[in-house]
Amino acid sequence: MTTHTIDRREVLNRVNLSEFDAALRGTKPGDRMSVIKAVFAGLTAAATYNITTAAMKALATITGINLATDENLPALGYLLTLRVVSATTGTVVGTYILTDIAGTVLTPATSSAVGIARISDDGTTLTFASADVTAFTIEYSPRSPVSLTAEYTNGL
After folding, report:
1. For residues 63 and 138, what is the distance between their CA atoms, to the nearest angstrom?
2. Residue pLDDT, tens place only, 68-110
């Protein structure tokens, strides 16, 4: 006989009211419905930035979400826009699309159209092709902080 493990996604899809609120709470639905715009400026030139740190939050102008003092930006779920607005060299400035962690990064000058940045598997870290990015703007919707496919335990 096989057993069936129930995951958070299944609990949410069933909409069983005795489990639904606890299953939904962990996914932070209010965050996930937000469209966040973060303008990062005054950065030390680098290629890699973790947008979910307190240090990055301190360097950002954030709209679309009200974060508590001890709360940092959530991980990226869906990218709307990404643009490098300042760098120590002009070849990096421009619009970017994202690839996964194994993808190849390019600058807008290399591709003659858009640059390609890399996003970490957990949605926290952006990597650009050159270590001279000093300001960028990102607009995105966050991902759930909990896996929807992990086994569900009521209240967790």
Report:
1. 11
2. 999 999 999 999 999 999 999 878 899 998 988 888 888 887 7
> SS3 for 124?
coil
Instruction: Let me know: does 79 contact 37? Beta carbons within 8 Å.
Output: no
Q: What are phi and psi of 81, to 5 degrees?
A: -145, 150
Alpha carbon dihedral 72, 106, 114, 46, in 10-degree steps, equals 40
Query: Rg for the chain (alpha carbons), in Å?
Result: 18
CA distances from 54 to 27, 68, 74 (A): 21, 11, 11
Q: What is the pLDDT of residue 3?
A: 58
Sheet holding 60-63, edge to edge: 48-50, 125-127, 115-119, 94-99, 76-87, 133-142, 36-40, 60-63
Question: What is this structure's pTM?
Answer: 0.80
For 26-37, write each residue's pLDDT tens digit. 767 666 678 999
Res 156: pLDDT: 52
Q: How far apart are CA 116 and CA 111, in angstroms?
A: 9
3-state secondary structure 78-102: EEEEEEEEEECCHHHCEEEEEECCC
